[in-house]
TrEMBL record:
GO terms of molecular function: glycosyltransferase activity
Protein name: Glycosyltransferase 2-like domain-containing protein
Family: Belongs to the glycosyltransferase 2 family.
Record SUPFAM superfamilies: Nucleotide-diphospho-sugar transferases (SSF53448)
Keywords linked to the UniProt accession: Glycosyltransferase, Transferase
Pfam families from the UniProt entry: Glycos_transf_2
Length: 341
């Protein structure tokens, strides 16, 4: 049997409401030489039956059923099962426009020094309507993407479900790492950037569905915490030292980071970066992120350091977002922990 040119990597967990739209958009691609490997990751809403129905009708669709193991385990399983030289990511609630695969594979075959290419996206709501301020512009060139990855402000320069990656590179870096749950894509971009160039096409070839229940809304603190550690691990690699997170199954708690990295100051740096990252996430700022910010303020007061700017503006933001208790707690912490002169 001839191997396909593209393996579509689709992990599904309870996406029944949108799954048929996502699958139809893949099967309608103008570039049809692909296999779609879908992992049903313990769905309980009928997603498994939908996948099986498509597999029965189209031989390009292959379904693997498993108990719920999470996105990282599912994607690594698909990588191991893939038969194609290119792997295209896709989520079960998004819609790929018909020319997506054709344009991405043409780019990669014309640019052998690039190992990954994403696309611009257009945001849609849960009901499929265009989202207000829906056009998201990601950097186009390898240089701009590398610059964005070097920033301490989390904001991925690539949309994970839009990317197509050379499989050999994905295997060479070890796929997705279990410890970086909720920011597994960001950690992957950092590792790939050390081996290859990456780009985004200027065309909007993916309709990306935004939802209040998606990971980027529910796990803001974990995302910023993991991303800060991933950036520090990258610095270790670039400076010729071992990556301390290699082999981790989970990320260590904040108080263990100095020991994990073998030097003092790491925990304080991560705390400052996470504080900076959650300033525009009111739920996190007023909830699980508040103790971390208070600890950051105490650190700064005791060391006489300048604290993360923008915290008083965050108080006002909490008031505007109807979180008066969080605003009062943050304001009190700011007043109690003013830097020593």
């Amino acid at each position: 049997m001839t191997s396909p040119r593209i393996t579509v990597a689709l992990s599904v967990h309870d996406n029944a409401a949108y799954l048929a739209l996502a699958l139809d958009s893949i099967l309608a691609q103008t570039f049809g030489d692909f296999e779609l490997v879908a992992v049903d990751d313990g769905s309980t809403d009928g997603s498994a039956a939908i996948l099986d129905g498509y597999a029965a009708r189209d031989s390009r669709v292959r379904v693997i059923h498993q108990s719920n193991r999470g996105l990282i385990a599912s994607l690594n399983l698909i990588i191991a099962e893939a038969r194609a030289p290119y792997i295209a990511r896709m989520d079960g609630d998004d819609i790929a426009l018909p020319e997506r695969f054709a344009q991405q594979i043409a780019f990669l075959e014309a640019q052998p020094d690039h190992g990954l290419v994403g696309t611009q996206i257009r945001g849609i709501t849960e009901t499929g309507e265009p989202r207000r301020n829906h056009a998201v512009d990601h950097p186009l060139s390898a240089e701009a993407i590398a610059e964005a990855l070097g920033s301490s402000v989390l904001g991925s320069p690539l949309c994970h479900p839009s990317v197509m990656i050379r499989r050999d590179l994905l295997e060479a870096v070890g796929g997705y790492r279990a410890a970086y749950r909720h920011c597994e894509d960001y950690d992957l971009w950092l590792r790939l950037a050390e081996r290859t160039r990456m780009a985004n096409l200027p065309e909007r070839l993916l309709l990306y569905r935004y939802s209040d229940t998606q990971v980027s809304h529910r796990h803001v603190l974990a995302q910023h915490y993991g991303a800060a550690i991933a950036r520090l691990a990258r610095i270790e690699r670039l400076q010729g030292r071992p990556d301390p997170s290699d082999g981790w199954r989970t990320l260590p708690p904040l108080e263990a980071l100095d020991h994990a990295f073998g030097r003092p100051g790491i925990a304080r740096q991560v705390r400052a970066e996470v504080t900076r990252g959650i300033l525009f996430a009111p739920d996190t700022l007023a909830g699980e992120g508040l103790p971390l910010i208070v600890a950051h303020l105490k650190d700064g007061r005791e060391a006489g350091e300048r604290r993360v700017p923008g915290l008083w503006r965050a108080v006002a933001r909490l008031v505007r977002n109807h979180r008066p208790r969080g605003a009062w707690q943050l304001a009190r912490a700011l007043l109690q922990n003013r830097p020593r002169r």
